[in-house]
Amino acid sequence: MTVLASQATVQIRSDRRTSLPYGLAGGCDGTPSVNLRDPGPDEVLLDTKPHLTLPAGARHRQTTAGGGGHGDPFTRDPEAVLDDVLDQKVSPRGAREDYRVVVTDDGHVDHPATALLRSAR
């Protein structure tokens, strides 16, 4: 959000910054919520429930907490992970880091590389 008026009073309510949404059945914990004022090199991390006045041109970015996963991500079907990459729900980097699935530049699963990555757990 960018403040277009001369100023704006903002009251934010967010949770799950330090107590992350938990995963179940071997799933990973979720990601924390984040509130940033003027995101970028001079960004300021805001509290989870700030009440503040922002001047014209000030920017705010809120990232809500991501839910915890269900099940061991390293046993997820690589083709299902590929579908998520193709649907832009997961980046190729996220597929590699979070699921240990290697997606090629031309949009296929590299099965030998995926097996090797998963075996090096």
Task: Walk me through what this model shows.
The chain is of the alpha+beta class. The protein folds into two domains: 7-63, no CATH class; 73-119, no CATH class. The chain contains three helices and five strands, in the order E-E-E-E-E-H-H-H. It has helices at 78-86, 92-99, 111-119, and strands at residues 7-11, 34-37, 44-45, 51-55, 60-63. The strands form two sheets. Strands 3-2-5 form a three-stranded antiparallel β-sheet, with no helix packed on it. It has a two-stranded antiparallel ribbon with strand order 1-4. The chain starts with 6 loop residues before the first strand and ends with a helix.
What features would you highlight for this structure?
two-stranded antiparallel sheet; alpha+beta
What would you say about this model in short?
By secondary structure, the protein is of the alpha+beta class.
Q: Roughly how much helix do the residues carry, as a percent range?
A: 10-25%
Q: What percentage of amino acids are in beta strands?
A: 15-25%
Count the DSSP helices: 3
How do the strands line up in the largest sheet?
3-2-5
Low-confidence stretches: none
List the helices and strands and how they pair.
Layout: E1 7-11, E2 34-37, E3 44-45, E4 51-55, E5 60-63, H1 78-86, H2 92-99, H3 111-119
Antiparallel strand pairs: 1-4, 2-3, 2-5
